[in-house]
Design goal:
By secondary structure, this protein is an alpha+beta fold. It has helices spanning 24-33, 56-61, 69-75, 99-109, 126-135, 208-218, 238-241, and strands at 2-5, 8-11, 38-48, 53-54, 78-87, 117-119, 143-146, 161-164, 166-179, 182-191, 197-202, 253-266, 269-270, 275-276, 281-286, 304-306. The protein folds into 2 domains: 2-164, DNA ligase/mRNA capping enzyme (D-amino Acid Aminotransferase, Chain A, domain 1, 2-Layer Sandwich), CATH 3.30.470; 166-306, Nucleic acid-binding proteins (OB fold (Dihydrolipoamide Acetyltransferase, E2P), Beta Barrel), CATH 2.40.50.140. It is elongated and about 70 Å long. This is ATP-dependent DNA ligase. InterPro entries: ATP-dep_DNA_ligase, DNA_ligase_ATP-dep_cent, NA-bd_OB-fold.
Length: 307
């Protein structure tokens, strides 16, 4: 949320946290583009020019940068993609007006805005939307949000539908939460070019009907004791999961990284090792694959097959 008051600009997370100090490079462009009393709804992003896609990890890095924030701002400038106008420059609340009306006002407001501020693309053409869903994942776009043109703005009402672009990919299981004979979630990794086993993500809870098969495949694979040499710290640091809403370390049972799993994931990948930002869903255990076949490639960090 962006609040433009007479005294300046406030950038606020959806949890109500003031993020303005972490995005000083957006304050002036927003102040120039927005009249006082304007309120926008949108999304912050940082573009990774080296990888040619948006980067959630570069965005998060600002929150922990400390004295290095000016350097990070200079190297990786932020952008705001606006997708709704909640109050116009006259101070008129627009929440009770239909999306189509709010969208027209938003486009008029941001016509000629600085390059760091963009209006989110929108279409009523189904084929165009399907094209976006299939093509924009390479740029880090997670999917589409479907909104009725006549819908009013209802905070946290769940009236919109998010459709993610999903792939299946192979990962090596490096640990489980729960118990070995009844795993709850799987911790996933891949081997990099030097043979180091890198943590890249976690699954949603394994379906009840699949837990027995997973437990049977994991039998005999646990590491014994804290000094057994597993490449990941136990518990897993909260920062590794990329979930900044949950700051607690993740307790897990380390296992020998020899079992491959096929997992359905979305296209939101971050960092040089293709860490999966959101949890995936187990499709099946792949006893036919060797873990060294599941490697991180710099050219195609996802290593995924589009579904």
């Amino acid at each position: 949320m962006v609040w433009r008051a007479a005294g300046g600009v406030r950038i606020q997370s959806r949890q109500g946290v003031d993020l303005t100090r972490f995005f000083p490079d957006l304050v002036s462009p927003l102040a120039d583009a927005l009249p006082a009393r304007t309120v926008l709804d949108g999304e912050l992003l940082v573009w990774d020019t080296r990888r040619g896609r948006s980067s959630f990890s570069l965005l998060q890095r600002r929150l922990t940068a400390g004295h290095r924030l000016p350097e990070i701002v200079r190297k990786h400038p932020a952008h705001l993609v606006a997708f709704d106008l909640l109050r116009d420059g006259r101070g008129v609340e627009l929440l009770a007006q239909p999306l189509a009306t709010r969208r027209t006002k938003l486009e008029q407001l941001l016509r000629g805005a600085p390059a760091q501020i963009a209006v989110c693309p929108q279409t009523q053409d189904r084929e165009v939307a399907l094209g976006w869903l299939g093509e924009l994942g390479v740029a880090g776009v997670e999917g589409l949000v479907i909104k009725p043109a006549a819908s009013l703005y209802r905070p946290a009402a769940g009236l919109w539908v998010k459709v993610r672009a999903r792939d299946t990919a192979e990962f090596v299981i490096g640990g489980v939460t729960g118990a070995l004979d009844r795993p709850v979630t799987l911790l996933l990794g891949r081997f990099d070019e030097r043979g180091t086993f890198r943590f890249v993500g976690q699954t949603h809870p394994v379906k009840t009907e699949d837990r027995q098969d997973v437990a049977r495949a994991l039998r005999g694979l646990p590491f014994r004791g804290p000094d057994a040499g597993h490449p990941w710290p136990c518990p897993l640091p909260a920062a590794w999961t990329g979930n900044f809403a949950e700051r607690q370390p993740v307790a897990f049972i380390p296992v020998e990284p020899t079992l491959v799993a096929e997992v359905e994931v979305d296209t939101a990948l971050d960092g040089p090792f293709g860490r999966v930002r959101h949890r995936g869903r187990l499709v099946r255990v792949r006893l036919d694959l060797h873990p060294q076949d599941v490697t991180i490639t710099r050219r195609s960090p996802a290593g995924c097959r589009r579904r």
